[in-house]
Specification:
2 copies of one chain form a homodimer. In chain A, strand 1 and strand 2 form a beta hairpin. With about 240 residues, chain A is an alpha+beta fold. Chain A is built from 6 helices and 8 strands. Chain A is elongated, with a radius of gyration of 21 Å. Chain A is about 30% helix and about 25% strand. The interface between A and B is large, with 43 and 43 residues. Strand 1 of chain A pairs antiparallel with strand 1 of chain B, so a sheet runs across the interface. Chain A binds a DNA duplex (27 and 27 nucleotides) through helix 6.
DNA sequence: CCAAAAGTGTTGCTTGTACACCCATGT
DNA sequence: ACATGGGTGTACAAGCAACACTTTTGG
């Protein structure tokens, strides 16, 4: 059968090209105590012992890179069905001194309040405020910078928060999240109006009285949220 | 020396993970006769004989994926220093029936008027209008769709044209380019005002009298163009 | 003269932004 | 009472979209 033969020939064609280790490295962002944080784990061996590293792993034979990223995330945080998006590839031949590794990078958003803290602690992982990151291995610093820009772009177009905040939150908490992401302040009144004009939040008959004297209504994302809105939330850059 | 030893150990650690063929596939866009076009070459063997394919190649040991994409582009079009941007990774294990290949995709913008037509012809390549693409191999259809969205995003933020138009062009030609990219019409007067307000074009003392009775001034991009502007050209989506 | 594109101007609407202002309440 | 955040309203500026109008010239 000519088709089969051709496929065999084709495999031979492929064989002459080199193969590479392909890794996935995830910038895992969370939000806690008014700060945007990044989940890192400490490197336990040389080179770069003592430096911190993004959560990562290698792509296996039978999985796509997205599946690999999901697997890594499940292993490290115990979470499924979380927001995950491809960022970019980092592939300088000498970026990893140990071997030639092509890294596919991802941005993940995790609700710190519901992830599996035992799993994270077991690996010695730690949430670092984005403003005070420690030294990172290899080019992970750049990967994070790149991921943060992607997060800002996304947040400027979509209203994010479902992925990072508790189920119920006040508009001040949402605004503080945006201020943490963009490292700038937003006018409270204007931010409120903009966010509510999109009509994807619903107000609960419940007030948070911890963070203000008057008490602020809790909001939550509407259930029948289509996800297709592409409103512009804030200006970026 | 403990460091060296650790590196050796580390290499062993890497060895247990699989390696993959990594390809680069480029959506090469050009603009000609008022149409946005894509450069494809015909597959000469089974499987998928007769179908068309994006320009691509394999990543070698000593190059990054970006360098690989540049090399492929140089080989196929003879052009250096052209616009090239990472799009995304396509990596389903069975996406290529011949072997497991992870594809890093790129968007390239090429001025059809100055590329090396001999090189292209030699390979049997052909420029296809984006509106009438033929059947493509594997998932290349998706890769193109993905690349086109990236192009639209870029064009909505930056004024592109330097990468696709001749050195001199009329504002009508620029508008037609945008209409080809977004597959919609723009109001001539408003488009003109918006584009000129950004102040990166300069008018030449030369008119094009071929395409209109009255004649339209030629424009060109200013030399001292910083490239850092991030104005919004048109609304997208 | 007429059609077709070049080029400019006007108008109304929508947004963004910077505020002012009152409300509720824990300290 | 007063400081703090909650929540609403206003006033101005900027941007956008629709479209009217004049100019030029080849057919």
């Amino acid at each position: 059968m000519p088709g089969e033969e051709a496929i065999l020939t084709l495999s031979k064609i492929y064989e002459q090209y080199p193969k590479h280790h392909v890794a996935v490295d995830c910038s895992i962002f969370g939000y806690e105590n008014g700060e945007l944080k990044l989940l890192l784990y400490p490197r336990g061996f040389e080179p770069s012992l003592g430096k911190w590293s993004l959560m990562g792993g290698f792509v296996q034979e039978s999985e796509s890179v997205d599946e690999a990223a999901r697997r890594v995330l499940l292993d490290t945080t115990g979470l499924k069905d979380i927001f995950l998006e491809q960022a970019g590839a980092f592939s300088k031949p000498d970026r990893d001194p140990g071997a030639r590794v092509i890294s596919m990078t991802f941005v993940a958003l995790v609700r710190i309040d519901i992830h599996d803290k035992d799993l994270v602690r077991e690996r010695g992982a730690h949430w670092w405020p984005i403003t005070k990151l420690p030294a990172l291995i290899f080019d992970h610093q750049q990967i994070v910078a790149n991921g943060l820009v992607l997060l800002q772009q996304k947040a400027s177009i979509d209203l994010i928060g479902k992925e990072l905040l508790p189920d119920m939150f006040t508009l001040m908490q949402l605004r503080n999240l945006y201020e943490a992401i963009f490292q700038k302040t937003f006018d409270p009144g204007n931010f409120r109006k903009k966010v509510l004009s999109i009509d994807i939040l619903e107000r609960l008959n419940l007030k948070n009285t911890n963070e203000s004297k008057k008490g602020a209504f809790y909001y939550q994302f509407k259930k029948e949220d289509t996800g297709i809105r592409s409103e512009r939330i804030v200006k970026f850059p």
